[in-house]
């Protein structure tokens, strides 16, 4: 089972305020523990939304929207992707996730399970999609 630990953005992360070295050290140690346990798949911080964009869809039409985006509480500042044997194991690890707030104040993470091929209805389109050699599908 794969889970994405989503680090919610804050006003500081959206302003481009970098975490203190201690936070990098704490998060690095936690990611090392995940790696040593054999469950870390990927982890990274994201640049502020001012450097990003969105594509909005209206049927087949697309529109381009440049960042920044106003609703900080709806934005993501980083993620950690793990593979565990159970939801309970994922919950145990995420309870130990360091506070991601830059100032050590209020922070929040959200954890979401990823779909696996066995969760989806088999079809020719799914088979073609799964046959693609996408980095995110490697284990």
TrEMBL record:
SUPFAM superfamilies: Dimeric alpha+beta barrel (SSF54909). InterPro entries: Dimeric_a/b-barrel, YCII. Residues 1-114 form the YCII-related domain. It comes from the Bacteria. Pfam families: YCII (PF03795). Signal peptide: none annotated. Belongs to the YciI family. This is Uncharacterized conserved protein.
